[in-house]
Amino acid sequence: MARGVQFLHDNEMIHNNLHGGNVLITQSNQAKIADYICPQTTELNEKTTPQYIVYMSPEAIKKTTMRSKPSDVYSLGILFLQVATQTPPTPIEDSELTEVQRHKPHLDDITGNPLLPVIIQCLNILPARPSIGHLCSRINIAKHSPQNVMSGALHRIKDSPELGSSLASGKYKIKWSKCKTLPVPMQGSNATIIDDVIYIGGGECPGADDEYYIFMYHQKENRWTRLQARLPQHGGVIININNKLTVLGGMESVTNISTNKVLTLQNNRWISLYSDMNTARYKPAALSYQHYTIVAGGKDNNVVLNTIEVFNLSNNQWTISKTFLPTPMWIISATTSYGAFIIAGHHTIIGCSNTGAYITTLDNILKPELSSTSSADDNKWIVLAAIPYWNATIVPQTTPPVIVGGHDDQFNTTDAIMVYDDSINIWKTVSVLPLKCCRTTMVTTHNSIIMAGGVTEYKTPQTIKSTTLTTVMIGNLVEQ
């Protein structure tokens, strides 16, 4: 249904009369929109029968505006509600209530349904209603929710309640305890896990030479060791490719020039096992998904990038995705969530620029043949609420997304742990870190989360250097 309406809107046409009686189902269970008669008409449809008035937007009923694209989106929202509840829509008759409040009894019946936030956005008053392009992206993401696709390839915290949803429910909190401290102070690093060993590096350290080393945390023994092999580059992304420790991009130690090198640890040596990236990238975001590795944004010397490239392990090739970031970004982090790709970070080359968060489907990233354009396409991305703190950290492998720490525009750090609330498009504080800091590193393990390093005072180069942390804490979900 949504794709049919998108076709109309893309061609500057309005259906003007969407309701349950105009949706036909084929023998192959495909929905087809019928009764589209007047392509040029935006006048109110005076022939709408009483039982179909419920599908009309409030502005159309009040005749405060001609029928419009947002009116079609509202009608789709009511249709989606009918599909989700399998019940004809019967809102509360009270003109003092909002549309969401009028339909609340039916909305309460589908709590947990991945379509619920989509429906709520469709019922919003103008101008908060989404465009049909954004709506189709949201539906595509909802199709990959746990209620519709149970994919073992998507990473989640195992053997414990899921972190994001558990914190969002208000029934759980995080209990923190100390671990063995880092061998050196470290901030802005990234980490990965291979065979229960946590590898951390790629960040900034007060001791400059430490930036070229990776440190290993052995969870069972609660101890840290340093890899003997020194990296020839720093500021790259540490990642697990095919159960091998790999570093993507960064800046070369000799020239201080961004690099596209992809190095893999083998026999305690860094070798070129996989193909190099197409573009040099310093501090990009990267993650592995199935047999793909996705790298987004970063900085190529003085140019902040908006490109995304995908490594396919099966053919050892990098491909530039036809889906671009909605804006050039660096010092960013990314995660996956039930078929969605979520990215957050800085918009410009300036360290304290706007911090944005965006979501699209993994299909948009991994299957460029589905894209209709080779340039940036905002309709492929949904803009989440701006993250209220700079230099916050996305916790990997959480649903809904979780961010921790950061600092405000006065460089005051926070201990906030925030979860994204999709229904009202805000980041809400649900718990706290054991200390106020920014640029910490977060790792999700089998049944816990680990924070390592960070900065407590991000005000001057001197305070950054002197307050860079060696602290390592482990957090476990416990009932309130």
Q: What can you see in these coordinates?
A:
This protein has 480 residues and is of the alpha+beta class. The chain folds into 2 domains: 2-143, Transferase(Phosphotransferase), domain 1 (Orthogonal Bundle); 163-479, 6 Propeller (Neuraminidase), CATH 2.120.10. Helix content is 16%, strand content 31%. The chain has helices at 2-10, 58-61, 69-85, 99-102, 104-109, 116-122, 132-143, 163-169, 362-366, 461-466; strands at 23-25, 31-33, 172-178, 190-194, 197-201, 215-218, 223-226, 233-234, 237-241, 244-252, 258-266, 269-271, 285-289, 292-296, 299-300, 303-304, 308-312, 317-320, 330-337, 340-346, 355-361, 382-383, 393-395, 402-404, 414-421, 426-437, 441-444, 449-452, 472-479. The strands form 8 sheets. Strands 8, 9, 10, 11 and 12 form a 5-stranded antiparallel beta sheet that branches. Strand 1 (23-25) and strand 2 (31-33) form a beta hairpin. Helix 3 runs antiparallel to helix 6. The longest helix is centred in the first third of the chain and has 17 residues, at 69-85. The protein is elongated. The two termini are 43 Å apart. The model is unreliable at 144-161, 349-353 and 369-378 (pLDDT under 50).
